[in-house]
Design goal:
The protein is mainly α and about 750 residues long. The chain is globular, with a radius of gyration of 30 Å. The two termini are about 35 Å apart.
Length: about 750
Amino acid sequence: SRSKMLVQKMLVQTPLTPPGLGADVVMPSINEDTPTTTSLEARALELLRLGDNARALELLEGADKLNIRLVNMLFTALIGTGVGVDAAAVRAQQACAAHGIAPNASIFNNILAALDKAGPPEAVLAWLAKMRAAVPVTTTAANIALKAHLQRRDFGAAAELLRSMMKRAAGADYPPPPNEMSFNTVISALGDAAQPERAESVLSTMIDAGFTASPVTFTATIAAFAKQSRPADAARVLKRMLAARLQPDTWCFNAVLSAYANAADPEGARATLANFEARAAEECPNAAPDLVSYNTLMLACARGGRPAEAEAAFQKLLARGLVPNEVSYSTAISAHARAGNAAAAQGWLDKMTAAGIAPDAVAFNAACSAHARLGDAAAALRCVDAMRAAGVEPTASTHAILVNALVKAGQLDAASASLQALLVAGERLSAPTFNTLISAYGKAGRRPDAEAAFSAMLAANVRPSLVTYNALASVYALEGDIDAAEAAVHAASQRGFAPDRFTYAALFNACEALPARDRRRRAVPHVTALLSSRVDLTERLRRSSARLLGDDSFAALLKSHRGSGGGGAATRAAQRPRASPSLRVEAPEFVPTGAEGAEGGGCSAGAAAEAGEDDGWTEVQTSRRGGRRGKAKPPPAAAASATIRKEKPPPPRTSTAPQPSAPSPVRLAGVPLTRSKSNRARLLELAQSVAAAEAGDAEGGSPASGDGQRGSMRSRSVSSNLADALTVPPAVPLTRSAASELAITLGDDMRLE
């Protein structure tokens, strides 16, 4: 939790993902396209820009005549004075009616943007329906609707809306065409939902459909992988960006650095920063490393358990002429705290004060955690007293650190009493506070107390984390209760958590405690899920798997997964990343003792949701981005203008392979393409002719087993007809690639690659 607070503070200062990626949509105050023409408009606009909403509201409500721009200002002033969005919208509509004004798109955009900031996503979708009934929906409004669907985690609805925007028919009022922000919003939301593969698939779809991906789009995709501690994938997307001839900026490099920091990889972070510095010196001086860059390197060193290297990064920061901030000092304190050096941590806290920077809660918590790691509960309490004396209120992390200090000191009952006192006092608590107790009770063999702590967590409306469920699974594993362990893991999957190495370790421990006749049967699905996931196959997990399945059986299973090239734990040779499949567990309903009736405590029975659930997002592999073995083509370069340039394809090579006995899937390789305005009607006509040819082949039936030669001749004839049908005549020029246009025209179910 302490590290998360450090990262959050860094994001506040210089966000790793640039503004506008599905965060806050900028609320338009007025229609800027139309210049103000009256002194009233100029005065009201000036007051709004000065933040004097009350005077602006008084001015507008006393006006004799309003126009559409002034109504927009009225709505903005109402919001600024604390009026609810719905009430402000009603008053804006009443003003339109009173002054004979027909509401236009700018009014609805204003309302939707305000609801996006303050209202639930359902309210956004309700007002979008009102907008559709009154005026044409704008791309800005559709982007806000995309964000609303994603906030509700309705990925199917978001996919459908984006797909329909891409397939928008000429002259249609709804949906509007997408723009870069449409894709950026989806990519950012998928990153927040821990689905980086889908985020990258949206980037690929955007490029394939002929839309220009900017550095902001690539940075959002990199940040999606960074949040999941996947630096190799973040670096791969950066290379893809460079191949597209786009110049990364400071935000982009900081996103890659954060991936290494999250993965506790100081070597990777240091190498990335060195490349960053060299590129800034040689090619792009305006994109030089900043304070966040060096703070992120320090964080990588701290998480990697290298306090000396964190101090070296601090000195390098000073040598670059940068001024350290509270994050810099807090990270140095945390580095020594993680190493268990309480004296050094306290020393850096003193340095922070001497530098004129008042320590905040993050700094005090870091110093306090150093004492907690050593089990020195008295010193941790003194640190909290100093924190209060400095006027800094303890946070949820502070309470978690104090409970951990008592647990480390072996005072479980005192830790439990402290937790109960915090609950009675109504203090804000976090999951780590309970996780520490649950884990400690499990190690002490006190299962009922562990379950009681979990029940208290739910009753306090504290959201459990993956660590919580892993701790519970470990408690049950120690008793050999595989059913309860699987139920805990199933409950985690129901909360949207993907299993990690600790999850599998707990399941394997539970299986090893079973009688010999049951071990292999219960372990096979878990070992298979591990090998299919993106969880690293550590030596410990490898040994456990071999013991459970037997050396020969495990070796055969491992070989089969490596040979499949699935990109799971068994192999990292796959060129394209895959989503981690959910752990499939048939488990009973998971309700720990005493949890009945606690809010959020019930977990339904049944298997965990499978990966790739049909929610509108489909991942496919293509040779364009390394989905198949062999050399992958680089992504198309983004041009500054709207026109997408593309080199002429080489003439098709003559294949020496034998002809297949059945028609091959239709491919567009080797088809000469031109660039101009598309004739979508002609494209649809060509597509229908292809479909008719395929339908005719299907009606003819497959050749009998004795007519292999005749069937082969028929398949070659059909393939020839299809090739003729796909020959694009000069009279049908294309704006984008033929693959993109046909995909948009034909795609009943757009696949996000």
